[in-house]
Amino acid sequence: MNDATITCPHCHTEIKLTESLAAPLLETTRQKFEKRPSDKDAEVAK
After folding, report:
1. Structural domain count of the chain
2. Which of 4, 10, 45, 46 could form a disulfide with 17, with the two C-beta atoms 3.0–4.6 Å apart?
3. pLDDT tens digits, 9-46
C-alpha cells in the first residue's frame, strides 16, 4: 500500500499525508460540496 504524500511547492520536500494532517483538508472540502446543492436550490428559487 502506498502512503500518500504531498510536495511543498516552495522547497519540494515530500510530506507524508497522515490522517491528522488530512482531516482539516477533508472537512473543508466536505463542507464546500455539501453547501453547493443548497446554493443551487436558492438560485433556482430566485
Report:
1. 1
2. 4
3. 999 999 888 888 888 888 999 998 888 777 767 777 77
Sign of the Cα torsion 20, 9, 27, 1 reads negative
Alpha helices in the chain (DSSP H): 19-45
Q: Round to whole Å and give the CA distance between 21 and 35.
A: 23
Domain span at 23: 5-45
Query: For residue 35, what is its C-alpha cell?
Result: 453547501
- Looking at residue 3, its amino acid is D
Give the pLDDT confidence score for residue 11 in this predicted structure: 96
